[in-house]
Amino acid sequence: MQHLVLAPVLVPLLCGAILLLLERRHSSLVLRSGAWIGLALLLAASIALFARASAGGVEVYLLGDWPARLGIVLMLDRLGALMVLTTSLLAIPCLLYACAGWDKRALHFHALFQIQLAGLNGAFLTGDVFNLFVFFEVLLISSYGLLLSGGRGERMKAGMHYVVFNIVASTLFLVALALVYGLLGSLNMAELAVRIREVAEEDAALVRAAFGLMLVVFCAKAALLPMYLWLPETYARAPAAVAALFTIMTKVGLYSLLRVSTLMLGDGANALAGFGRDTLLMFGVVTLLLGGLGVVGALRLRISASYLVLLSAGTLFVAFALARPDTIAAGMYYLPHSCFAGAAMFMIAHIVQRERGEVGDRLLQPAPPMPRLTGLLYMVAAVSLAGLPPLSGFIGKFLLLAAVPDAATALVYAAVLVSSLLALIGLSRTGTRLFWRTAAVAEDEAVPPAAAPRSARTPVGKREIAATALLLCYGVAMSVFAAPILRYTDAAARQLLSPGDYIREARAATPAVRQP
């Protein structure tokens, strides 16, 4: 069973390759069946790895039996297992939503979807920063295809901005890796954690510059202010199933930041201990407030959903930058919640767009009344994203506020509470305009009937509703089973802040047969 650690990368990669070969000659039914089989295997592997990581150990897997310094090394700990399981759970409703019909319009959708899962899982499991770059590229290249396939007009324009931005960020990442390797002689995470402790004070400035560049790249991927400009328009223009899956892409940057800051720049890093924490905290606070203002000012539901993703990223930056066991544990609980609820909001936006016809999801134009079920789905998602009790958003934010150290209380409390209030105002205004201010009510406002012709409205299928409801059920389940989840995240946070086992296991791993 030692090879199971490889499964979250290998299974979707093989599945994607097979689907790529089949797509020219087989029907969508065959492709969907293959995609679901691959996803079922991935989910089973993710659950098994999550159970193994819960025991508290750290597992090392040397791919191809090559030494860690030469080959690909995968590391399994509580944080990695949580991220892989979150990815698998998120992928289920995304695939279900796409199988309602959109997958037929996107060339290579199923293959690219699986390859992106492989890239995401590889990024969460790798124990080497160069392979982190490689998996970044795998997930980004597949995301380019998912975003641009079948697109035109504004979506193509937003997609090209997204591609250019990420190419620049990836170039900077490569430069940062070259600097780190030149200064420290390794790119293995555990080895770097040891060598950073040995950096002399006179050499620390260069190492700070290299890691500063790397942190900038992670912040760009996670859409930290001011590098967030690519996110709202890109996510708003992406197809609903793709935008829903993209909600975890910003979390890859946050995961990388958390991994590097706790393993390499933690309290034992001597000259580099705590490097960048205060700066990240301040920028995280401003990102939080900006996300809240964006929700209030959004004129379309999809733009509002994009700013909610930005708001959740700001919350996580604050939680991780505080670098305390309780704040990190709260952030790790909040992270899956924000993925599920944010993805649900993108799907609801698409459902609203179809039910309102040509008016789409624009908030200023009334349209004929929509089904009550859509309103109910929106209400649950809005309550969760605004952080109101009793759903998981409230639990995550409450735990974060309860764990804030005294020195940062005023700043963090003000940022979290004000941003939550802004999100609540924005979501309330959006719900009022979409579900209460209907065309029948707005007849006195002389809205041209042609503005929302019923003929342009598209019926929403059961699969789309089921996929959205499943995402919201995840959030409800996180509220019901909050206690065991919080025990896990608390243990994971303490494991991150005490990286001795991680470093020891990684350095002790040797090839079973091959002699380096």
From TrEMBL:
Task: Give me the segments passing through the membrane.
Answer: 6-22, 34-55, 75-99, 106-124, 130-150, 162-184, 204-231, 238-260, 280-299, 306-323, 335-352, 373-395, 407-427, 465-486
Gene Ontology MF terms:
NADH dehydrogenase (ubiquinone) activity
Q: Name one GO biological process term.
A: ATP synthesis coupled electron transport
For this protein, the record's Pfam families field holds:
Proton_antipo_M
Which PANTHER family does the UniProt record give? NA(+)_H(+) ANTIPORTER SUBUNIT D1 (PTHR42703:SF1), NADH DEHYDROGENASE (PTHR42703)
Which GO cellular component terms, listed alphabetically, does the Swiss-Prot or TrEMBL entry include? plasma membrane
Family the entry assigns? Belongs to the CPA3 antiporters (TC 2.A.63) subunit D family.
The lineage, from the top, is:
Bacteria, Pseudomonadati, Pseudomonadota, Gammaproteobacteria, Lysobacterales
Q: State the InterPro entries in the record.
A: CPA3_Na-H_Antiporter_D, NADH_UbQ_OxRdtase, ND/Mrp_TM
Concerning NCBIfam families, the annotation shows: PRK12666.1
Report domain NADH:quinone oxidoreductase/Mrp antiporter transmembrane positions.
127-422
Q: How does it sit in the membrane?
A: Multi-pass membrane protein
The primary site where this protein sits is membrane
Q: What is this protein called?
A: Monovalent cation/H+ antiporter subunit D
Q: Which organism is it from?
A: Luteimonas viscosa
UniProt keyword annotations, A-Z:
Cell membrane, Membrane, Transmembrane, Transmembrane helix
Annotated localization: Cell membrane; Membrane
